[in-house]
């Protein structure tokens, strides 16, 4: 199960990272205005998602990639808050604002998912 969840997480982060390059204009619109160099940050976060997604696959880089992904999830949280506060009407996405607010706690779920598949040691039960 852990391997499946790791593969799913790797795919999720890698695809999300690619989207930062393919649809940078959308990510720019939800970037908090107080952050400098928004386009560079969109590309940097996309590259970090790709590197982290691929990095959790081989065991020699798994732990470091997991730490990096957790740091990234914390770092992008202001953008998640920005989406909840401003909504996404300016993006042409007709999604009720409450959905973006409801999404915020799931950042902790994503962090736990990364931790489970990269940092938590598998339990060894001896009888």
Describe this structure in words.
- This protein is an all-alpha fold and 127 residues long.
- It has one domain.
- The chain is 72% helix and 0% strand.
- It is globular.
- The two termini are 22 Å apart.
- The mean pLDDT is 91.
- Keywords: Membrane, Transmembrane, Transmembrane helix.
- The chain crosses the membrane at residues 39-57, 64-86, 98-119.
Helix content range: over 70%
- SSE sequence, one letter per element: HHHHHHH
What structural class do you assign from the helix and strand content? mainly alpha
Strand content: under 5%
Radius of gyration from CA coordinates:
16 Å
Whole-number count of domains: 1
Low-confidence stretches: none
- Biggest sheet descriptor: none
Principal-axes shape call: globular
* Discrete helix count: 7
Tell me the span between the first and last alpha carbons: 22 Å
Please count the beta strands (DSSP E, at least 2 residues each): 0
| Oligomeric organization of the protein chains | single chain
Mean pLDDT over the full residue set: 91
Keywords: Membrane, Transmembrane, Transmembrane helix
Transmembrane segments: 39-57, 64-86, 98-119
Protein name: Putative membrane protein
Secondary structure topology:
Blueprint: H1 2-22, H2 24-29, H3 38-55, H4 59-75, H5 77-86, H6 97-103, H7 106-118
Task: Give a summary of the structure in a few sentences.
By secondary structure, the chain is mainly α. Helices cover 72% and strands 0% of the residues. The chain crosses the membrane at residues 39-57, 64-86, 98-119.
């Amino acid at each position: 199960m852990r391997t499946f969840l790791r593969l799913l997480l790797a795919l999720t982060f890698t695809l999300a990272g690619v989207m930062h390059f393919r649809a940078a204009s959308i990510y720019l619109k939800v970037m908090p205005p107080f952050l400098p160099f928004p386009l560079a940050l969109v590309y940097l976060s996309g590259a970090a998602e790709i590197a982290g997604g691929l990095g959790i696959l081989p065991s020699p880089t798994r732990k470091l990639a997991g730490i990096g992904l957790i740091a990234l999830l914390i770092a992008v949280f202001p953008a998640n808050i920005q989406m909840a506060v401003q909504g996404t009407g300016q993006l042409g996405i007709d999604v009720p604002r409450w959905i973006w607010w409801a999404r915020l706690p799931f950042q902790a779920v994503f962090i736990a998912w990364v931790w489970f598949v990269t940092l938590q040691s598998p339990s060894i039960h001896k009888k």
